[in-house]
Amino acid sequence: MRACHVAMRDALRSLPGHYPIGMPLSMNEYEAFPGGEDLVSSMRHEMEDEYLRAVEDDDYLGVQCYTKIIIGPDGRITDPEGEQTEMGYLFWPQSVEYTIRRAASFVNVPIIMTENGIGTDDDEQRIRYLTGALAGLSNVIADGIDVRGYFQWSLLDNFEWTFGYRPKFGIVAVDRTTFARTPKPSAKWYAEATKKFLTPH
Predict the structure, then answer these.
(1) Which of 45, 101, 156, 172 sits a CA distance of 20 to 30 A from 38?
(2) Rounded to an integer, what distance in angstroms lies between the CA atom of residue 101 and that of residue 136?
(3) Domain boundaries, the chain
């Protein structure tokens, strides 16, 4: 897959036109419980590090993240202590800052947070999550990391892979019978929050 990406990038650059070429990479913050250190190192190497090295000549890197994954000696801890989301993810908006910093330590290309959000029926929980996520984004920008954008997942409540319509990731609700779209309180909050958190320092 990595070789395919490099070949695709080189082929596109040989054609007329000028457009940014990059790859989105799903990343996580990992925490190793005692005995899980080697497994975390192996997972990072296979799932992230080798892909980060493959994009060093791209025009940008897309980072997607949602949570922190905890690894014990026998693998992933599937029911970690702490607040969780509808997806069973640990409520961990700090993963935004962590993954951007980690990506930036590997590559010297602009970074776009191409996907981040929370699946929840509790819009107040969504606002708390996005507050933490945008604060982390503001921190990395203030430290000079070249972040060019942030995409909240998602505008609309969507069909979420094998989970169907149950998890609610959108800041706009969708009535599946009438297809009416109704902005949630988080939509208005998000419009104002991005101005607050992402104003140049």
Answers:
(1) 101
(2) 10
(3) 21-197
